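Researcher: Structure prediction, please.
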Amino acid sequence: MIIVLNRDAAQEEIDKIKRKMISLGCEIHESKGRNYHLLGLVGDTSRIDPALIEANRNVDRLVPVQEPYKMAHRLFHPERTVVKVKGREIGGGEFTVIAGPCSVESKEQIVGIAESIKECGAAFLRGGAFKPRTSPYSFQGLGEEGLELLKIARDKTGLPIVTEIMSPDKVEKYEGDVDIIQIGARNMQNYDLLKEAGKASKPVLLKRGMSATIEELLMSAEYIMAGGNERVILCERGIRTFEKYTRNTLDLSAIPVIKKYSHLPVIVDPSHASGYWWLVEPLAKAALAVGADGLIIEVHNDPANAKCDGQQSIKPERFGVLMDTLRKMAQVANE
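Model: Predicted structure follows.
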């Protein structure tokens, strides 16, 4: 439920309304822009009498929110959310690209790739330190050593780092070491982790689960935002369908749907969506065309010998060509 206030409502009267709503057991999410002032009510609104609210002369109207997600809903926050990290933005109109290897393997590897992608125009460095794998026998990442190597690459290049978190007890460490905390597809509904991420001050990149609906993705974002962290970036990375020619099926329709119903920025992962390096470029172009705010792409200097997901990684040279194409496409899209 959203209370739309009159533009000339006095602050004293607004405070009275807020105190009343809090006394009825609601949390208030306030949003104020040049031409609007909203009080979003979160919680059990069954005790609220809509007629009494609408009778208040400081209230313009009452807007019910049918969807179960509230704070992530565009009605609560009409202006789009822009996540700012070290002078870079996601969701602010620029097409932002995050790139790097699936897994951190060595200092030489991660620093070399970081230097290459920065030269090509990437804004952030991604790399897995802790890796959730389907098989217990697969490479699980370097762990805390991998985090230290990512920090070295950041120091060398200035690129902010994005890496996946696996458990709630690591949130405090990630606060100090990482610029964007990534919650992967397998953990999208790990509610203990989402709640801890909600207490963090760092932005959270939340990937859509393999079989999750759009609403379930937004509800997971709601968990983080309800905890106090509103700097959430959504990621469409493909969903599991009956199709076997690709690793997953990239749901491009999710981008405009999310844009319609939510103010949160949304990026696309064409690497995990396809599972094949030769599909990354066309899907990346398609993501820009449908309005995504950016991409997260796997780039590896030696895909044939990568310890994780080499088949879906592109080489730095191909990444450079793709970035040139995306820049030209973005210019056309913004005209």
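Model: Residues 185 and 209 are 4 Å apart (CA to CA).
Researcher: Thanks, that helps.
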